[in-house]
Amino acid sequence: MQGLIKDLRRIVEPKRLLTELEDRMAYAYDGTFRTRVPDLVVRPVTTAEVSGVLRLANREGLPVVPRGGATSLSGGAVPLQGGIVLALTSMNRILSFNREDLLVMVEPGVVTAHLHRNVEGAGLFYPPDPQSLEASTLGGNIAENAGGPRGIKYGVTRDYILGLEVVLPDGEIIQVGGSTVKNVSGYDLTRLFTGSEGTLGVITRANLKLIPKPEARRRLLAVYDDLGAAGKTVTRIIDSGVIPSMLEIMDDTTIQVVESYGHFGLPVEAAAILILEVDGFAETVERQASIIADLCRSAGAIRLEVARNEKEGEDLLKARRAVSPAVLRIDPRKPTKISEDATVPRSKVPEMIVRLKEIARRHDVTMVVYGHAGDGFLHPNIITNQDDPEEMARAEAAIDEVFKLALELGGTLSGEHGIGYLKAPYLVNEFGPAGVKAMRAIKEALDPKGIMNPGKIFDQGIGKMRAPGRG
Amino acid sequence: MQGLIKDLRRIVEPKRLLTELEDRMAYAYDGTFRTRVPDLVVRPVTTAEVSGVLRLANREGLPVVPRGGATSLSGGAVPLQGGIVLALTSMNRILSFNREDLLVMVEPGVVTAHLHRNVEGAGLFYPPDPQSLEASTLGGNIAENAGGPRGIKYGVTRDYILGLEVVLPDGEIIQVGGSTVKNVSGYDLTRLFTGSEGTLGVITRANLKLIPKPEARRRLLAVYDDLGAAGKTVTRIIDSGVIPSMLEIMDDTTIQVVESYGHFGLPVEAAAILILEVDGFAETVERQASIIADLCRSAGAIRLEVARNEKEGEDLLKARRAVSPAVLRIDPRKPTKISEDATVPRSKVPEMIVRLKEIARRHDVTMVVYGHAGDGFLHPNIITNQDDPEEMARAEAAIDEVFKLALELGGTLSGEHGIGYLKAPYLVNEFGPAGVKAMRAIKEALDPKGIMNPGKIFDQGIGKMRAPGRG
């Protein structure tokens, strides 16, 4: 290790290499519950530094874990096997902004909301909006292929990445994709690295596509005393030709938790609410809002509110954004949140919610359900205590069933959060041994020594949640 | 070979195995100019048959070339090294249509226009629209990640593929992606196989995303006596917030050629024309069309026509669709069309056109330029004669410069057609040795014996256009 530290000092300035325990401890966690203190932390500022670090790590066979805002909900940034954490938050410049071509080139450490504010100031729009956007970085968003409420209309991070600069595990620097909206040159490595969870290389630069900012938007709240009616609304909207820019659902428990947390005026007696948004040209927005209001009512909404101005719209969004912090306050004895993102075909959302509630009841766990209903995307959150092994065992049994259910309904393990370590043991259930083998073959082709973010995506047989390394 | 034929007869019905030269000759070509008669042709009807054929071919180390409508313009379907052509046109069923979830599951041999008509009859929309859509198949579209005029608003084939069934070279059948619009489970193999040009496996099934069909559309024709003004219009439209569903450009030569071919009433004295389309809700279409008309005029259009009805709009599109056949009739002594698809950032379109014309002049070749200007996508077509080695040498020198120019302007070798054999020698110019090495590593990981479509994407040192095997 001392030799390695000496070599690293030749690559980065001393202050960018953290070796003291108290410094390294700050890099042991992410948005999940396992922690592990890395052996070293490097905070590079250039691609050449990243390349130098990877070259050394590869020589030594030492794990490297890229880290942005560390908001991952699947465990992407936890250095499960120690090694080097490569903290990319100092590479945080917006390198160029090409208004004519609607392109922006960024370093991986740019915080997502910072980019939003920058481009919106120029009348442009970078749609991907993970809930973590005030803390998460674009590098992390790309590595996890982050989504968000606007995905239903605007797609996810993947849809806005035209090109990447990537440092491969052996230190080679490659450019994939480019600067054009159409590009079919060679294999689509841009999209292979997008969502690869830091297991194939380190993203050091990204060329992002922007779009013009919609000139108007309108938000709506629809209240239901019946979950099925809310689900029916979702299907009818999708069928209507109107594509909302947001279509969020909250179940009864979520509504109560959020309301008691923030007093937003949500209807605590409701079985479910939908929060909707439409955007575009002013006159289109009016028409879309009116079509959607009619659809909500005819599908059985017992109350409908259309935000009359931007302030009222903002209040609705605040309630949605409060879900995550609110959920953590449900019960002081249950500080552990296991946030899943099982996703099903849209028409299966009502069935999924009903059966999630059954699962929670059967295993006696506290669960709230909310999510991007328009994408078939739900966040069943189990609220538990990681220090209570008996309750954690029940939580794990419930999660097992959640994944089984999602796949049974034709869905996927992960719609937004990625596989990380939390879902790695389940990957084979979705793709079968041959599918996982194909993915592993790609991993081994690009990272033959397996240094990049080990223990993520691919199960290393260390078990599920209760495995050692947690705590 | 006789042993192999015996083994293949155990896998497919006799009539689905073509061994006679006169039968095999029909599978020697695609939309490019090289040909090679395959040793065998198999026309499977099930995934299991495809799997059985690949297993055998892999055992024997025999090349396998998947083939759909054989309209490739980069050489995807030419069996350069002989072996087995796997003609997938008999796997042409639409397997399921899920209206609620806006999904359709197809076999690879379904002709693109057939799917269009099917889903549009139900009020839905599958946007990808390569010009070859009446002949090309979805399997081919996916393998090449086909685009089309509607790409500017609706994206390309890649954006509509939710999941694939793929047979790997060793015969293993895997499912990648799924049925949900959001999916970040494991590596994005769906998009890796999309655009992989048949070099990684055989697509036997695809799950496609549909969207609601726009209720109205309007087409416009803008005429320019100055190419720069047409280019300026493109940039201004992109900047305006209106995203047209089509933004096509034709240069003077293209206009003259198309008009003399079809008498569409195009302005033969013009320096360039733009053909535009907007779609969406009826009232939005009116507003968008009026914004675009104003932008065209203020950027210097000397004439502007707005199609008053669907018939007039259809006529405009017919002129655009006639480009390809028209170009082939320019000169009976020049029956060979080399159609490139170099793509640049949108703002570089005017410069690209001017410099393409210089290149054509300098090398004394006949070139027409048209394309999807809104995507920065141009089709410089060189019209030549493959049997005239001197002229082909000049064409090749010109093409060399076209690629160099596209990359110099920040563009890519291929926006729509793929690399195939035609552009394989240039791949390294775009991605460098390390980038190509990473792509090759993936190829070798999934196809260690190199049986899948050899000679495509990766240069095998057999030279550029004039290489043996042509004719």
Question: Could you walk me through the main structural features you see in this protein, from its secondary elements to its overall organization?
Answer:
Two copies of one chain form a homodimer. With 471 residues, the first copy, chain A, is of the alpha+beta class. Chain A folds into three domains: 1-213, Uridine Diphospho-n-acetylenolpyruvylglucosamine Reductase, domain 3; 216-327, Alpha-Beta Plaits (2-Layer Sandwich); 336-446, Alpha-Beta Plaits. Helix content of chain A is 35%, strand content 19%. The first copy, chain A, has helices spanning 2-9, 21-24, 47-60, 112-121, 138-144, 151-154, 189-193, 227-240, 252-262, 282-298, 310-321, 323-327, 349-362, 389-408, 427-446; strands at residues 17-18, 40-42, 64-67, 84-87, 94-98, 103-106, 124-125, 161-167, 173-177, 202-209, 211-212, 216-224, 246-251, 272-280, 303-306, 336-339, 366-371, 379-384. In chain A, strands 15-12-14-13-17-18-16 form a seven-stranded antiparallel β-sheet, sandwiched between helices. Chain A has a five-stranded antiparallel β-sheet with strand order 5-6-10-8-9. In chain A, a hairpin with a 5-residue loop joins strand 8 (161-167) and strand 9 (173-177). In chain A, helix 8 packs antiparallel against helix 10 (282-298) and helix 8 packs antiparallel against helix 13. The longest helix of chain A is centred in the last third of the chain and has 20 residues, at 389-408. The radius of gyration of chain A is 22 Å and the shape is globular. Chains A and B meet through strand 9, helix 7, strand 11, helix 8 and helix 10 of A and strand 9, helix 7, strand 11, helix 8 and helix 10 of B.
